[in-house]
Write a structure and sequence with these properties.
It is an enzyme of class 5 (isomerase). It catalyses: ATP + H2O = ADP + phosphate + H(+); Couples ATP hydrolysis with the unwinding of duplex DNA by translocating in the 3'-5' direction. It comes from Pollutimonas thiosulfatoxidans. Belongs to the helicase family. RecG subfamily. With 692 residues, the chain is an alpha/beta fold. The chain has four domains: 102 residues, no CATH class; 87 residues, Nucleic acid-binding proteins (OB fold (Dihydrolipoamide Acetyltransferase, E2P), Beta Barrel); 196 residues, 3-Layer(aba) Sandwich (Rossmann fold), CATH 3.40.50.300; 158 residues, 3-Layer(aba) Sandwich (Rossmann fold). The chain contains 25 helices and 21 strands. The strands form four sheets. It has a seven-stranded parallel beta sheet, with helices on both faces. Helix 9 runs antiparallel to helix 11 and helix 10 runs parallel beside helix 11. It is globular and about 90 Å long.
């Protein structure tokens, strides 16, 4: 069984100053021998054999030997080094776009060389551009050559040398007991690691590249098990923490809220309210995810949680990723809770210095019982008197570190005696099953799986932008029926300024094409007061068509809007398209979402648009999005700099996920030392991010 050892890696030593190589290795997270051995190859190159030139074809990586027949520097169209290599079967062109005098000398005619690279179709047949060159006749390696993830300035040769040194000194003993390895048919860890770093040429190249080899299965199992152990440890640690129990008394604020609502709660909403209420009444911190499709009514569920916390004497913070969404929450919560005597504060970065100071004072004094805002809530200057509940909406839109910062606002010993605030995460992006089993395994999950009554399903249409006039006609028709429409401008990933210009141009073009309509414009660069004015005019029916960027992606609720046009829909992600579609269908009338695209479509864009056309089920959309993009967008860790799963794939390795979950409890109960060693090997210094 492996034990945690503090051993300096041979490649990471220096007399007085840290070497350049060591700094590069540390940038990859490689410090101790154990780090190096689990830094596994991305792919492999087969340098174990020489192939005839005549057998080469475009796209293959190959190694050949031959005699240099011709070499010259050409200056058209630019300075390049050209050479021809011949063996008994044929000739191969070689080309360097950038080269040194030593390379030119190396290509002298008559020399016998070994070259390796990717074969391309050139003007005169097969060619290699910037191949690797060595002297012919050297002994061939007996194993495939690994190609590792690296960083600028760190060569594969340096990385291979460091990893090979680590393999000599690292503890490769097994962290899993024999009975678990036997039950799941797992290859011994040391054998799997050595095989993946130095696979013999007899191993199936396809199995290695596609990660189907038993050695890869062992590594995936280990990684998934370590992740599960970390989450289980995080859950257990949270159970050992203390939080203020937020009890509900009959006839209090919660009951007042229930009595004042102008609508009936759905059964799913009531179930989620009860689950959260039960958690809040415990003496350890709640860590619950509330998920529901767009329009399912998560805000009112959050309002009941806030009411329970406030009636127990605590403050509540609700943080949203955009000012428009935060403002929408603020308006709703003010309408529901202020008549019941709750003081609601508003805090965003766009407030004037005086307004920010007054809000901060109200928060610090405890006068503000409920605080709604954006990332401004986690600024150092903002201090809560007694934060008992933190609510994050669209939690995956925040970085992991930001989520931790809000939680820590309630952890000051002086204010709370060491109590930890309860935390409720909300998401309109349903979590696919495999993701829930892995990254969200430590969370309690509440699901709003029904829409409020009166909502109509949205009809989705795919229309080429060559039919723009037909789309304009649909806008006029909807407006004549007394309804309203959104026109979402294309996403310009390269530049926010370009997207803004696109929105301005689109607004001008539509206003000219539809002179009888009142056309509004909203985008992220408008001042908050202007945004609020534009949105209020749209809500009040004073605007017929609202041209918008993706600032309206989440939270905007205008029941009379029945038509959504998304221009250049092929540029948007699947989850984003689904969120935008959710801005309509909030009233009783039939609503339509037009995905206007420009041909030709890429394969991924075609899959996204097909998914949007085929289903409106948020869970199915989420499953397909996970398959297309991986888990990063669901988790909101792109800003954290932390790796997700390096080796396992949630879509294709679902069986290994289930096996790791089965082994989890047994390892923790029967083999705690093995569990500790396993975590040390795979999850060094990364567990803290799992608490968020």
């Amino acid at each position: 069984m492996a034990t945690a050892r503090k051993v300096r890696h041979p490649a990471a030593t220096g007399d007085k100053a840290t070497s350049l190589v060591e700094r590069k290795l540390q940038a990859l997270g490689l410090r101790e021998p154990g780090d190096f051995v689990v830094h596994l190859p991305l792919r492999y190159e087969d340098e174990t054999r020489i192939v005839p030139i005549a057998s080469l074809y475009a796209g293959v990586h190959a190694q050949v030997e031959g005699e240099v027949m011709h070499s010259e520097v050409q200056f058209r169209p630019r300075r390049q080094l050209h050479a021809t290599l011949r063996d008994d079967s044929g000739e191969l062109a070689l080309r360097w776009l950038n080269f040194y005098p030593s390379q030119q000398k190396q290509m002298e005619p008559g020399r016998r060389l070994r070259v390796r690279g990717e074969v391309r179709h050139g003007f005169h047949g097969a060619e290699m551009v910037h191949p690797r060159v060595s002297v012919a006749g050297l002994p061939l390696p007996e194993a495939l050559t690994p190609v590792y993830p690296t960083t600028d300035g760190l060569t594969q040769a340096s990385l291979r040398k460091a990893i090979d040194q680590a393999l000599q000194t690292a503890d490769l003993s097994d962290t899993l007991p024999d009975d678990i390895c036997s039950r799941y048919g797992l290859m011994p860890f040391g054998q799997a690691i050595r095989m993946l770093h130095h696979p013999p040429a007899t191993v199936s190249y396809a199995d290695l590249i596609e990660r189907g080899h038993p050695a890869w299965s062992r590594i995936k199992f280990d990684e998934l098990l370590a992740q599960q152990l970390s989450l289980a440890a995080a859950r257990a640690a949270r159970r050992r923490q203390r939080a203020k129990p937020l009890a509900v008394a009959q006839g209090d604020l919660v009951q007042g809220l229930r009595n004042s609502l102008p609508f009936a709660l759905t059964a799913a909403q009531q179930r989620c309210i009860d689950e959260i209420a039960s958690d809040l009444g415990r003496s350890f911190p709640m860590h619950r995810l509330l998920q529901g499709d767009v329009g399912s009514g998560k805000t009112i569920v959050a309002a009941f949680a806030a009411a329970q916390a406030i009636s127990s004497g605590c403050q509540v913070a609700i943080m949203a990723p955009t000012e428009i969404l935060a403002e929408q929450h603020f308006q709703k919560l003010v309408g529901w809770l202020e008549p019941l005597g709750v003081q609601v504060a508003w805090l965003t970065g766009s407030l004037t210095p005086k307004a920010r100071r007054l809000a901060a004072e109200a928060i610090a004094s405890g006068h503000a019982q409920l605080v709604v805002g954006t990332q401004a809530l986690i600024q150092d200057k903002v201090q809560f008197a007694d934060l008992g509940l933190a609510i994050l909406d669209e939690q995956h839109r925040f970085g992991v570190g930001q989520r931790l910062q809000l939680s820590r606002k309630g952890e000051h010993e002086a204010n709370t005696g060491g109590l930890i605030p309860h935390q409720l995460n909300m998401s309109a992006t349903p979590i696919p099953r495999t993701l829930a089993m892995t990254f969200f395994a430590d969370l309690d999950v509440s699901v709003i799986d029904e829409l409020p009554p009166g909502r109509s399903p949205v009809l989705t249409k795919l229309i080429s932008d060559t039919r723009r006039d037909d789309v304009l006609g649909s806008v006029v028709t909807e407006v004549r029926l007394g309804r309203q429409a959104y026109w979402v401008c294309p996403l310009v990933e390269e530049s926010e300024a370009l997207q803004l210009q696109t929105a301005v141009d689109t607004h001008a073009r539509l206003a000219a094409a539809l002179p009888d309509l009142r056309v509004g414009l909203i985008h992220g660069k408008l001042a908050p007061a202007q945004k609020q004015e534009v949105m209020q005019a749209f809500r009040d029916g004073q605007t017929d068509l609202l041209v918008a960027t993706t600032v309206i992606e989440v939270g905007v609720d205008v029941p009379n809007a029945s038509l959504m046009i998304i221009e250049h829909a092929e540029r948007f992600g699947l989850a984003q398209l689904h969120q935008l579609r959710g801005r309509v269908g909030r009233g009783s009338q039939q609503s339509i979402c037009v995905l206007m695209y420009q041909a030709p479509l890429s394969a991924i864009a075609r899959q996204r648009l097909r998914a949007m056309y085929e289903t409106s089920d948020g869970f199915d959309i989420a499953r397909r999005d996970l398959a297309l993009r991986g888990p990063g967008e669901f988790l909101g860790v792109r800003q954290s700099g932390q790796a997700l799963l390096r080796f396992a794939d949630l879509e294709t390795d679902a069986l290994i996920v289930e096996q790791a979950q089965e082994a989890l409890q047994e390892l923790r109960k029967r083999y705690p030392d093995h569990a500790k060693a396993h975590l040390q090997r795979w999850m060094r210094n990364r567990q803290d991010y799992l608490r968020s």
